[in-house]
Amino acid sequence: MMRRWIAAAGCALTLLAATHSAVAADGPDPASDAAAAAAADAAADVTFEAAPAMAPVAVPAAAPAFAPPAALDVNSLLHAAAVTYGIDEARFRRIARCESGLNPNAVSRSGYKGVFQFGDATWRWASARAGYAGWSVFDAQANIYSAAWLMSQPGGFGNWSCR
Fold first, then answer.
1. In the chain, where does DSSP find H-type helix?
2. 136 domain residue, yes or no
3. Which residues lie closer than 8 Å to 41 by C-beta, 6 or more apart?
4. What pTM, to 2 d.p., does this model score?
5. Could you report the per-residue pLDDT of 71-88, keeping only the tens digit for each?
6. Both 31 and 80 in a single domain?
7. CB neighbours (10 Å) of residue 98?
8. Lowest-confidence range among 37-46, 52-61, 99-108?
9. Alpha-carbon distance 152 to 72, whole Å?
10. Fewest C-beta in 10 Å: which of 3, 37, 83, 128?
11. More confident residue, 5 or 156
12. Residue 22 has pLDDT above 50, yes or no
């Protein structure tokens, strides 16, 4: 069905292009008009099927004026999170490097995941309290900001073996 529709559309475009080039060259040509009419008659013998229905596409009113935080790299996220939560950035960065080598997709043999190597249970409650409930532990922004929130709490740095 789709092939037949595409072929018919291609014939119509060819006919349109031939007619346009003949008229644009030096005005209408009776011979070209006869050829165009013959091609139109041949195209009329084709059974057209309705084009597939397409859902309307929502177009944003305007592009965002800045890159969303998720588009930032790990180093930028580490800096922003440390500043946001008022924690020692050097220590925060050192722990991230020790835990995962700054790899958001890191998984340890013990099953800890992400930049700060969260366990599943810790991730569920810490990410929820940091405002990232339901986010993937592998999302660099969610992982880093959740760790920063946790480290900003009393005794928070004690949750990591890396110092």
1. 2-26, 30-44, 74-85, 89-100, 120-130, 140-152
2. yes
3. none
4. 0.56
5. 578 999 999 999 999 999
6. no
7. 15
8. 52-61
9. 22
10. 3
11. 156
12. no
CA distance 150 to 129: 9
What CATH number does the domain containing 151 carry?
1.10.530.10
Phi and psi angles of residue 7, each rounded to the nearest 5 degrees, phi first: -65, -45
Reference 81, options 158, 139, 155, 136; nearest CA is 139
Cα 133-138-144 angle, rounded to 5 deg: 70
What's the gap between Cα 10 and its chain centre? 33
Q: Token pair of 1, please?
A: 């069905």
Q: What is the C-alpha to C-alpha distance for residues 5 and 48, in angstroms, rounded to an integer?
A: 6
Quick one: tokens of 129? 């309290």
| pLDDT level of residue 154 (50, 70, 90 thresholds) | confident
CB of 106 within 8 A of CB of 100?
A: yes
Tell me which DSSP letter residue 57 carries: P
Question: Would you state the pLDDT for residue 18?
Answer: 47
Verify that 40 and 76 share a domain, yes or no: no
Residue type, 127: S
Structural domain for 93, as ranges: 71-159
Token readout for 107 is 């998984």
